[in-house]
Design a protein that fits this description.
By secondary structure, the chain is α/β, with parallel strands linked by helices. Helix content is about 35%, strand content about 20%. It contains ten helices and twelve strands. Strands 2-1-3-4-5-6-7-8 form an eight-stranded mixed β-sheet, sandwiched between helices. Helix 6 links the parallel strand 9 and strand 10. Helix 1 packs across helix 5, helix 4 packs parallel to helix 9 and helix 6 runs parallel beside helix 7.
Amino acid sequence: MRAGQEIVVIALGGTILGRGKRGCEGYVSGAMGVESLTKELCVTLGLKRAELEQRLGAKITLLSLASIDSAEIDSRILLELARAVQKALQNKRVCGVVVLQGTDTLEESSFFLHLLSTSKKPIIFSAAMRPNSALGSDGVRNFYHALILAACPKSAKNGVLIALNDLILSARDVIKSHTLAVNAFECGYIGYMLEHTPQFLYKLRQIHTYKTPFSLEQLCAPLPKVAILYGYQGDCVGDFAKVLKREYKGVVYAGLGAGNSSTKTAQILSDLSEKIPVVISSRIQQGAVSGAVARRFITAGNISAPKARILLQLALAHSFTHKEIAQIFRQI
């Protein structure tokens, strides 16, 4: 172990820290605790804590911020997490940070830090689809791979990464695409674990982390209110237009196909965009918004609607102009 090297693990709860009756699918989110998960990992590997740290080349420091389902995570918790991660990474001894949380909003939390962290050091999220008490639990393995990635120099300058199901995923593009399957996360694949060794295939071209245009110091909870509207046949965007103009600072429309909508909805969104920023994304999981839509609105490119909401919130919190927001969406 290199003298003074350290990995900080920050726990928020979720299935990876869930526990229920042994062999059953039911569980309580976050009930296990990160200390217990670490002990389970050591037992699985047949190692003592000191031996695990020797293998990783870094001491493991555990920090619990919350023990909640990820559906309960809001901007206050996200900002608390971002500040805890920033504080940890400013410590010269810390080589990387691991964040443990539930899968349901993992793509949003990881993207939030992907946009806000200014460190080049690894930030690795991990989670589980099955609690530790269930048959075929995946949490211990995912946690181990997250620790390995946090200690790996090749993980640096890659933005926020996610360790799940033997894959290395990028926070920018990751999407939960299945409700229950162990391989629920597939989009955003930039590498994989081979016999517990990271194999990187790609690097991101877009701006992230240490090149971010955002500043954590300028933010406070709650972040500006941004609504997501879902496109469908005969959608009722017009019914919400007055409320949106009055109570929200921005809107993301998850459009049909490549960001399309009916003629009526397009006109309502166009009128709304004269009052507040309107960003067009797609309800489809993969692919980008079309150029025709981009000529009329700010577009999310191939970023999902929930991530577009977070990006727009941060841009609004920094008081960027409409033109600057459009430019940021093209770069991220």
